[in-house]
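Appendix B, Record 12. Input sequence as logged:
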Amino acid sequence: MISKLKHKVLAGGEITKEEALELVNLAEVKTLELLGAANEIKEKYKGKKVDLCSIVSAKAGSCSEDCTFCSQSAHYNTGVQSYPLMAKEDILARAKEMEGSGAKHFGIVTSGRGVIDDQEFEQLVEAFRTIKEDTSLEVCASLGTLDEDRAKKLSGVGLKRYNHNLETSESHFANICTTHQYEDRVKTVRALKARGVEVCSGGIIGLGESFEDRVDLAFTLKELDVDSIPLNILNPVEGTPVEDNRKVPPMEALKTAAIFRFINPKKTIKLCGGREKNLRDLQSLALLSGINGLLIGNYLTTQGRDVKEDLQMIKDLGLEF
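Logged structural output:
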């Protein structure tokens, strides 16, 4: 089954949801074979280069939404520090630091459903413009829901890519968020694609979803034709409703990544938040399991590992960045 579906994808074909679920249900002893097949698909379509991106949490905390996994939600007491929008100069300094560390993409992230204040939005537009002028970085953003006018303005200052995660499948979404709808997220993705902005959209595994939910998410992202798929593994935060969720075993997380590669063979698939605590010594194996990108440096409210360790890992695997 693995060989048959691998050759189908390598020949330019597409697997069906039913075939993806057959991969899900493979015996555990077949997992390494599945990871190797996903790596072959990745190497054919994406080569040996690992796409590196980094982010800055430019505004944190006090979010009105009730996403169960989020340490920045005002609905939960997590002890995360809130702060207003960073100054343009501080954002630029962070961008230059990450450029020096090997990042190719740099994303500005703000908490909240969207940037409501027009003055803040204009400050962000100026920050994007400055980064574009003063660095070689591709400028990205994650500012929540966007209307048409703001999407147009961001594309006008050279925004390369916009992150707007779907988080999970449509059928599971109501279990992790009730303050907005799944369709709200899908509409934002479609609006950005219509403006020619690249879209980075993925999700989190470990939110109490089934493996079928993960497959559904992968196919939704395929249908939306997103450009980059970030895969996060839940790192539970005390005070959130998911703080006691079952930990995702490392090999299960890698199997998930491999199946995402079978479903989205030509897309960038990045391993992002939660990789250090969930994969531990198996982080390098992810880059041989269909993953071709990493979020390096720190995350929004948690620490990442030393960038030098990630770069050495890439070199040790004979890959490039």
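Residues 2-316 form a domain with the TIM Barrel fold (CATH 3.20.20.70).
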